[in-house]
Amino acid sequence: MPHKIIKSLLIVIILAAFFLLFYKTELFNIFKTNQTTPDLNNLLDKKATVLVKVRLDNSGLQDIYVKLDNGREVFYGSYADIYNGHYHWAEYHNGRVYFIRRVGSLDGDDWRDELWRLDARGRDKKIYSLRGFDFRVSPDEKFIAIDSEEQLFIRNQSDQKNISFSVSDLALDNPAIASLVGWSDNSQFFWGDVHVMSKTVNFFRFNSVTGAVDKFVAPPDYYGRDLAFNLNAGAMVYSDYPFFFDSNDDEQFIASQAIVKLKLHDLFTQKEIVIAESKTKLFFPRWINDSTVEYNNPDGEGRLQFNN
Amino acid sequence: MRYRMPQFWPAVLMMAFLTSGCGSDGEKLSGHDVSDNPVSFQPTDGELQAIARQLSEQTIADEDYQRLLLLEEGARLELRRHLLQRMTEEAIASSAQIYAIVGPSAGWSISADSVNGGTRPLAVKPGQSIAWTLYVEVPFYSQRDIRWEGEPLGYNYDGTSRIGGYGCHLCCVSMLYAKWGYQQMTPLGLNNWSYNGRAHYAFSTAGNGDFIAMSQALQYPSVCRLWSYITSGQIQAHLQAGHPVIAKLNRVGGGNHFVVIFAKQGNVYWVKDPYQSSANQNQPLSLNIADFRVYGY
User: Cα–Cα–Cα angle for B164, B242, B218, nearest 5°?
Assistant: First the structure.
C-alpha cells in the first residue's frame, strides 16, 4: 500500500514537472496556438518592432507579432479590434507588448479605447480604458504617461495612482495643448511638448523620482517637422523646414530653393549649432546613440553621421 | 533659334483632358466635371508660356480657361512665373481671372482687421446667438475629435504628424464634403481614402507624405472639382452665392492654419475653426491671412 502511494506521488510529481517544463519553455503554446514558439531569452531587453497582420481566414482577427532584431517574427496573440490606425498604437518593453484596442463601433455612442498588455505566452491584461488617448510606457514599465481629451497624467503601475497635470503646469503660454514625447532610458524623466495650433511652444520634463516638472522654450524655428529627440540628453536635432498643409505651399517652398538648416539644440542651455544645410530637402534625422545622429545626405544619396 | 509659339495648345489641352477623363466629356454634377479616371493636368513649359500670353492678352477661350483651374500646383507656380515676365504683381492681383489661377505671391498676407472692415469683433459667449448678416450652412469637424485625432496624417513617413496636430486643412475639405452630402468623407474617411490603387489618395507623396494634394483631395468619388484663389473683396459674393471660403491663416510664431469662412456679422467674417471643439467652432476671422480659396464651385 505505501508503495502504491509513493508510486502515485512520483507520477504526480513527474507530471507536474513536465507541465512546468512545457509551460516554462512555451512549448505549451504550440498546442494552444499552432504558432511559432517564442524564445523568451531572445525577447528580453531587446529593441523590437510590434507588427499586426490581418488574417486571411475571414475570422476578422488580426495577429500581433513582435519582430526581433534578427528579423524573426514571434506570434503574441489575436484580437478583432486592434486600433493600429492610431499613430502610436503599440509599444514593446521587456518581452511585453502594450497596445490599444478600439472596442465598439464609432457609429454608436458606446465605443471606447483600451490599453492592453500582452506577453509572449498570450497572457493579456487590460490596463486602462478611455476614449481617444495616447500613451507612453516607461522602459521599466513602472509608469505609463497617458494623454486624453480631458487631461495628461502619469499612472504609477505599482499603486495604480495617477499624477495629473493641468495645462498651466506644463505650458509656458496659455491657451495651449500638451502632448506626449517619451521616456528617458532610465525611466526617470518623461518628456512632452506643448503647442498652440501646430506650433510647438515649449517642452516639459517630468521627474518620476522627485515629481518636479521643468519647462523649456522650444526653438522659434521648429515647426514640428524633421525632429529627432534625445530623451536622455535633453537635446533635439531638428530642421527648420516649415510645416505645410498642402502640396501647393510645399511646391512654392521647393521652387524658392530656400536653405533648410539641420540644427542640434540643447534644451537646457538653449545653445544651438548647425549640423548641415540643404536646399529645401528634409533630413529625417535619427539618434543612433546619445552622441551620434544620422541624417539624409543633403547633397546626394545615403545617410551621414554627426558626432556631438 | 527663336522660340515659335505653338498655335495648337488649346487642342493639346483638349486632348489632355479627353484622355485623362477630366475633360468636358464627363458627366456633369453640380456644375463640375466628372471622371472615372481623373489625372491632373500638367502642360509642358512651352504650353504654359503660351497660356501666360493668352491670359495676359485676355484672349483665352472660356472652355480652356476653366480647365486651367484644374492645374497641378507645380504648374500653377510655373504659370505665375511666366505671367510675372509679362505683367506686374499688382496687375495679377487686379485681374480676378488670372488671380483665381495663380493666387498671391509667396509671403503676401492681409490682416483680418482689414478684411473685417476695421471692425474688431466683440467676444461672444458660448451658446450666444448671433444675428448673421450672411450665413452659409457648413457642418463642422474638429481635428481634435477623439475619434480621429490620433490617426497618422496621410502617409506620415516620419511618424510624427497626426490629424489632431496638423489636420486643419484636411478637416476644412471634409467640412465641404459633408456640405455636399458625402457623410462618409469625415476627416478619417478622407484621410484614409484609397483610389486609383493608391492609399491616402488625397495626399501628395512628396516630403513627409502629409501635404493635401488639392486636385486629388477634391476628386471624391471621381469628380474633378475646380478650385481657385479669390481676393478678400470677393468673399462676400461667394457667401451670398452659398459658397464657403477657405482661408489660410499665418499664425503668430510661424506656421499656417486653415479655417472655413461661413458667415458674416456686420463687417466681421466668421469661420469654422477645426482646431476648436464643437462648442467653440464658430470664431471671428483673426490673425493674418495668406490667401483665400474657393473649393468645388
Answer: 50
pLDDT band, very low/low/confident/very high, at A21 (cuts 50, 70, 90): low
Q: Which residues of chain B neighbour A218 with C-beta distances below 8 Å?
A: none
What residue in A sits closest to B152 (Cα-Cα)?
A87
Q: Are A119 and A93 in contact (CB under 8 A)?
A: no
A67-98 pLDDT, tens digit each: 988 888 999 999 999 999 999 999 999 999 99
Q: What is the pLDDT of residue A34?
A: 31
What φ, ψ does residue B23 adopt, rounded to 5°? -85, -170
> Cell digits for B217?
483631395
Does the beta carbon of B214 lie under 8 angstroms from any beta carbon of chain A?
yes
Q: Are residues A94 and A83 in the same domain?
A: yes
DSSP structure class, residue B6: P
Range(s) of the domain holding residue A66: 34-131
CATH of B110-295 given 1.10.3470, 3.30.1300, 2.60.120, 3.90.70: 3.90.70
- Give the burial class of A131: count Cβ atoms within 10 A of its Cβ; 0-12 exposed, 13-18 middle, 19 or more buried: middle
Q: In whole numbers, what is the pLDDT of chain B averaged over residues?
A: 85
- Checking if the pLDDT of A1 tops 90, the result is no
Closest of A229, A221, A224, A223 to residue A293, by C-alpha: A229
Which of B146, B152, B162 shows the shortest C-beta gap to A149?
B146
Best mutation site among B72, B73, B277 for testing chain A: the one with the most A CBs within 10 Å?
B73
Using CA coordinates, name the residue in chain A closest to B169: A245
The ipTM estimated for the assembled molecules is: 0.74
- pTM, 2 dp: 0.81
Q: Does B31 touch chain A (CB under 8 A)?
A: no
Is there a contact between A250 and B253 if contact means CB atoms under 8 Å apart? no
Per-residue pLDDT reduced to its tens digit, B181-207: 999 999 999 999 999 899 999 999 988
